[in-house]
Amino acid sequence: MAFAPGAAGVGDPYFPLDGNGGYDVLSYDLAVRYNPANDVLVGAATIRANATQDLSRFNLDLDGMSVRSITVGGVPAQWSRDGGELIITPAAGIPQDVGFATVVRYDGVPDTLGSPLLGISGFMHTDDGAVVAGEPDVAATWFPVNDHPSDKASYTFRITVPVGLEAVANGIPRGRTSSGGWTTWTWQAVEPMAPYLSTATIGDFDLRAYVAGGIRYVDAIDVDLIGTRTGNVASEAFARQPEIVDFLSGVFGGYPFSAAGGIVDDYGAFSFALENQTRPIYSRGFFSDARFAESVVAHELAHQWYGDSVAVQAWQHIWLNEGFATYAQWLWSEEEGFETAAETFAAHYSTGPNSPFWKVIIGDPGPDDLFDSAVYNRGAMTLHALRETIGDPDFFALLPAWAQQQETGNGTTAEFVALAEQISGQQLDAFFDDWLFTPAKPPAP
């Protein structure tokens, strides 16, 4: 049996060292203790995986942090570090198709990231805890991980924080216990999740839990916002989540998860919203106006179908996330009696042909333009133009079919095009080439 090292990356064209080869993660069990007084996190990560080759060694992604010990199959393993790669050599090779458990014990101050697109992100240290959100990178800042959306897994979180603080993660709350001035909060996300969508956000929150439509909602609003205009708008927008989910389910098919909800923290340096699976995280800045707030909530809830349940196979396909979520905002606006999707499309289409808006190749934007506004708005325009091209019956059959075909998995632009052609019976290569891959204003549909 010829054992060989797993690859140091999954081969994503934009981020070649994100993720790793040689294995498929099934689950993460993350036990972390975080002390806001000194920002230190102490963690033990149990990673259960299947070998996809005869594996002599394998990598995990981990930025910063100090590794204290590693076992594979209960036996101490050797390890080394190379930048963000944690290279693990087990005591014996792991045969293909055999499951194995890796336990990594580590500690340190998790890194806060910065980017010209999102500002600060990652593990953001606040005055009373932390906000954990980022894209495409965040997970490797606080636990060892196969850090790419193509390797989804289930998660259990056991987050220990000082008594008086809340720790909010993905999925369903499984209770809390307190001892010696610390409280451990347990959460379980059983549906497969891409690593960047996981969170362990900590602070003094007003938690609100309820069930609507068979879905377990948990909302967390920073107590410093309660009673303020921002807090009131956030509370009102969150109260409409079941209504928004019901509307989107009528367009996209049944809601794909057992839990939902949202988090708003009063951390001023945090400036974006992210579709963390079952529990999106929002900057306080989105809650100054009720209509705008509901539109953003509709966007992040739409991502639960497109971006979370159906994740990208590689980051070049990001329009499949952002275009769909933006189009959901247009549909929600129309449902609320405001601008129709056609009117919003027309407003964007009136942009002059020489505008930089038309220069981004949204079907393959490159890492620097991953979150350019054109990816969002022209992605939504592509969907509306497709609707005009194939007609409402086929278009509104395509949306839930795409969500169902790729449910809990990953998708590519080519797969979406193939499904659109199958449902419509039309040859659509020229259409998608114009709208996704040509840096010029497409012809009107």
- The termini sit apart by 57 Å
Strand content: 25-35%
Please state how the strands of the largest beta sheet are arranged side by side: 5-4-8-2-1-12-15-14
The structural domain count equals 3
Largest sheet: 8 strands, mixed
- Average pLDDT confidence is 97
What percent of residues adopt helix (DSSP H or I)? 25-40%
CATH topology of the largest domain: Immunoglobulin-like
Count the strands? Answer: 23
**What is the CATH architecture descriptor of the largest domain?**
Sandwich
Using only C-alpha atoms, the radius of gyration works out to: 22 Å
CATH superfamily of the largest domain: tricorn interacting facor f3 domain
* CATH class type of the largest domain: Mainly Beta
The parts where pLDDT drops under 50 for at least 5 residues are none
List the helices and strands and how they pair.
Layout: E1 23-35, E2 40-51, E3 58-61, E4 66-72, E5 75-76, E6 78-82, E7 85-89, E8 99-108, E9 112-115, E10 119-125, E11 130-133, E12 153-162, E13 166-169, E14 172-179, E15 182-193, E16 200-203, E17 205-212, E18 215-222, H1 229-239, H2 241-252, E19 259-265, E20 273-274, E21 281-283, H3 290-302, E22 311-312, H4 319-335, H5 341-349, H6 373-390, H7 392-405, E23 410-411, H8 413-424, H9 429-436
Parallel strand pairs: 1-12, 18-19, 19-21, 22-23
Antiparallel strand pairs: 1-2, 2-8, 3-7, 4-5, 4-8, 6-7, 9-10, 10-11, 12-15, 13-16, 14-15, 17-18, 20-21
Structure description:
The protein has 445 residues and is of the alpha+beta class. The protein folds into 3 domains: 201 residues, Immunoglobulin-like; 98 residues, Neutral Protease Domain 2 (Neutral Protease, domain 2, Orthogonal Bundle), CATH 1.10.390.10; 126 residues, Neutral Protease Domain 2 (Neutral Protease, domain 2). Helices cover 26% and strands 32% of the residues. It contains 9 helices and 23 strands. The strands form 6 sheets. The protein has an 8-stranded mixed beta sheet, with no helix packed on it. Strands 17-18-19-21-20 form a 5-stranded mixed beta sheet, with helices on one face. A 3-stranded antiparallel beta sheet has the order 3-7-6, with no helix packed on it. The longest helix has 18 residues. The chain is globular. It starts with 22 loop residues before the first strand and ends in a 9-residue tail after the last helix. The mean pLDDT is 97.
